[in-house]
Structure formats: C-alpha cells, structure tokens
Amino acid sequence: MTTATPLGGTTFFSLNVTREEDFLYKSSGAIVAAVVVVVILIFTVVLVLLKLYNRKMRARRELEPKGPKPASPSAQGANSGSSPHPATVTFSPVDVHVESR
Fold first, then answer.
1. Region entry Disordered: which residue ranges (predicted)?
2. What residues contact 75, with CB distance under 8 A and at least 6 apart?
3. What's the distance, Cα to Cα, between the start and end of the chain in Å?
4. Helix or strand or coil: residue 40?
5. Cβ-Cβ contacts under 8 Å for 79 (sequence gap 6 or more)
6. Buried b / exposed e across 60-79, counting CB within 10 Å, b at 16+?
7. What angle do CA 18, 19, 22 make, to 5 degrees?
8. Average pLDDT of each block of 10 consecutive residues along the chain (101 residues)?
C-alpha cells in the first residue's frame, strides 16, 4: 500500500504536466499568429507614414518657387550665345535600311 500512493501521486503529476504541455503547444500557435499580426500592423503603419511623408514632400517641392538654376561654367562657356537648354545629340543607326518608295 505504501507503493501505491507515490505511484498515484506521480501519475497525477505526470498527467498534469502533459495537460500543461498540451496547453502550451496549442497556445503557441496563437502566440505565433499574434506575433505575425503585430508585425503586419507595424509594417502597415510604417508604409502609411512613408506615403504621407512622400506626399507632403512632393507638395512642398511643387509649391516652392523655382529660382534660376546656376549653369556650370563649362556649359556656359561653350553655349554662351545659345538657348538656356543644353544641346541634345541624336544618334541614328547606320545599318538600318529604310526602303524609300
């Protein structure tokens, strides 16, 4: 009879630990899901804040007055009497044959 009591206590203890472990295994899925939801929420908030900042900065750039831009000395010396736009170079391919009718 003395041996039955410790075994009963040990069995009860091991069953209790098993139930706690099962509870932890079942709740770990919920914990992982909660962490994923929190991470998604953080990324969403950061994305919204960046979009708002970008919109604000774009509006500020569009509304600020556009002053004369200083030209570089080399471009100013080469095109001193020409238009303020830089010269554009157009390349045409040599080996393209166009049929003339």
1. 60-101
2. 86
3. 116
4. helix
5. 86, 87
6. eeeeeeeeeeeeeeeeeeee
7. 85
8. 50 61 84 96 98 94 79 57 62 62 60
> In residues, how long is the chain?
101
> Residue 39: what pLDDT?
98
Which H or E run includes 3?
none
Q: Residue type for 63, please?
A: L
pTM of the model: 0.43
For residue 45, give both structure tokens.
Answer: 């908030």
* Among 47, 51, 29, residue whose Cα is nearest residue 39: 47
The DSSP call for residue 68 is P
